[in-house]
Write a structure and sequence with these properties.
This protein has four helices and no strands. The N and C termini lie far apart (56 Å).
Length: 113
């Protein structure tokens, strides 16, 4: 009897999480037509978002966890600088070449090591 109730508890938690997620999304869809995207709130939100992405990127480069921690810090920084250089140098469609550069260089280091 206890296992049956435990199984139901997991289903109730899953349904509750789905309902909570979709209610928030539905509210966002309903309110989105009335929001000014050029307001100070959205500028602040964009700034916070970019700051979080930048801080997580720096943390990943300087304080990695797992397999990336075996790569010396100077190599991680060098690959990052080269990828940013590719992003700055290419006038159009900069993201994909920069990501490919970083990925290929990191995989090449792993293969040669």
């Amino acid at each position: 009897m206890d296992n049956v109730l435990q199984g139901w508890g997991l289903w109730i938690a899953l349904i509750g999480a789905c309902v909570g997620t979709y209610i928030c999304r539905a509210i966002g869809v309903l309110v989105s037509g009335r929001i000014n995207q050029d307001s100070e709130v959205f500028r602040w939100l964009a700034a916070v978002t970019y700051a979080m992405v930048a801080s997580l990127t720096v943390r990943l480069i300087l304080m990695p966890v797992g397999l990336l921690a075996t790569v010396p810090v100077w190599i991680r920084i060098l690959i990052c600088v080269l990828s940013v250089g590719v992003m700055i140098s290419t006038p159009a469609r900069r993201l994909v070449p920069a990501l490919l550069t970083g990925t290929i260089l990191m995989v090449s280091y792993g293969v040669m090591r």
